[in-house]
Amino acid sequence: MVTTTLDDELIKSGKELLKQLDTANVFVDAALWFYFSDIENWKLILSLPDLIKQGPKVAYKEVQKALIALGENLALSLDDIAISKPDVPLLQLLKVAIRTGPDISHIRLSKNVINGQLIEDAYIYRLT
After folding, report:
1. Dihedral through CA 19, CA 25, CA 30, CA 32, nearest 10?
2. Is 96:115 a contact under the CB 8 Å cutoff?
3. CA-to-CA distance for 9 and 61, rounded, in angstroms?
4. What is the per-residue pLDDT across 16-75, written as a single tens digit (0 to 9) for each?
5. Sheet with 81-84: strands ordered across
6. What percent of the chain lies above the pLDDT cut of 70?
7. What does the alpha-carbon distance between residue 62 and residue 68 come to, in Å, rounded to a whole number?
8. Predicted pLDDT of residue 5
9. Which residue, 25, 118, 124, 128, has most beta carbons within 10 Å?
């Protein structure tokens, strides 16, 4: 689904997915919606450090299980999600400015500059 607007339904769905992963004891150290202006699309970025060590296929499979457990009422699919390593530059940059702890937060960053980098738009649930 190509979406140029992050609406309440996507925000709620991202939160529900994160809760489901937490319930399944999947360690998520970063979870956020990020707007990629080059493709004019939002992606839910999830950093799953324990699973990504086993390969992206394992990480995506675990996320797919969480999506299935939540049923068809979510406004997102696996196509809307990007699994990331915890040390990618984008997450390292965001962690310079924000640390949320393990709980689920609701922090919106719009048109912010961090260390000279423009963050056009992001909605952060967790950055630990």
Report:
1. -20
2. yes
3. 23
4. 999 999 999 999 999 999 999 999 999 999 999 999 999 999 999 999 999 999 998 788
5. 81-84, 41-47, 30-36, 117-127, 107-114
6. 98
7. 10
8. 86
9. 124
Q: DSSP letter string over 47-115?
A: E-HHHHTT-HHHHHHHHHHHHHHH-TT-S--GGGEEEE-TTSHHHHHHHHH----SS---EEEEEEEET
Name residue 51's amino acid. L
pLDDT score for 3: 57
Among residues 10, 7, 8, 4, the alpha carbon closest in space to that of 38 is found at 4
> For residue 124, what are the β-bridge partners?
32, 107
DSSP SS3 for 6: coil
Q: Quick one: tokens of 7?
A: 């609406």
Q: How far apart are CA 33 and CA 10, in angstroms?
A: 9
